[in-house]
């Protein structure tokens, strides 16, 4: 996995969070490297064509609530689980699109599935995979890709 | 503009689009939000609409199909269609433009990028 691809992933997440919620994405610090005290929510999205892969985004509920507060301006007590799921799915959808725009040649189109959200911890399916961890407002953000389409050399670590 | 239809299966995405439209000076327009292309088509047929803003990747009827139906309808073909998508690249943009899209924008959108594309319609 090249440093360049790591940069593409970071840039996709940073641009998405900065444009949608005015939040800065930083490398994971030691403070957030430990397990977050908050429960988390995960969203999954399939890349259907021209490569096959799955992307998984995991955020603490509190960070999701903070993002919703910026985008929707709802009082925290009014934030239903459905709104959290919708926000997480839209974040993953946007990150995936930006990443594929940079990864796939411009003359080739691609297809994404629809995001699916679950509150369970993500279980990575078979195939090479890699996980990236970042810090957003003191909370951990985790992004993972599973599938050989992004990792042609099969030398990827989880 | 008096009426704008916003089609996206994500309430979050619809909110972001609505906010951007308000910021660029279209807050006075009546905005109709729908979660898929089929419902968008139904609402477009209800009364005259000045702009359709649609996502590409939606359940039931996707944005590309919606665009084809709008541009294939004598009653709706004049409605400018802006496609805002997370699944766009130059190849997709060329296809959508060929199908009649007024503009194609990548998510996440900003008021500045939206204004740049919509300026000709706002004059």
Report on the structure:
The complex is a heterodimer of chains A (158) and B (123). By secondary structure, chain A is an alpha+beta fold. Helices cover 36% and strands 27% of the residues of chain A. Chain A contains four helices and seven strands; from the N terminus they run H-E-H-E-E-H-H-E-E-E-E. Chain A has helices at 3-21, 30-33, 61-71, 81-103; strands spanning 25-27, 40-49, 53-60, 111-112, 116-118, 129-136, 139-146. In chain A, strand 2 and strand 3 (53-60) form a beta hairpin. Chain B has 123 residues and is of the alpha/beta class. Chain B has five helices and five strands, in the order E-H-E-H-E-H-E-H-E-H. Chain B has a five-stranded parallel β-sheet with strand order 2-1-3-4-5, sandwiched between helices. In chain B, helix 4 links the parallel strand 4 (81-85) and strand 5. The mean pLDDT of chain B is 93. At the A-B interface, helix 1, helix 4 and strand 4 of A face helix 1 and helix 4 of B.
Compile the SSE list and pairings:
The complex is a heterodimer of chains A (158) and B (123).
Chain A: H1 3-21, E1 25-27, H2 30-33, E2 40-49, E3 53-60, H3 61-71, H4 81-103, E4 111-112, E5 116-118, E6 129-136, E7 139-146
Chain B: E1 3-7, H1 11-26, E2 30-34, H2 37-46, E3 51-54, H3 63-72, E4 81-85, H4 90-99, E5 103-106, H5 111-122
Parallel strand pairs in B: 1-2, 1-3, 3-4, 4-5
Helix pairs in contact in B: 1-5, 2-3
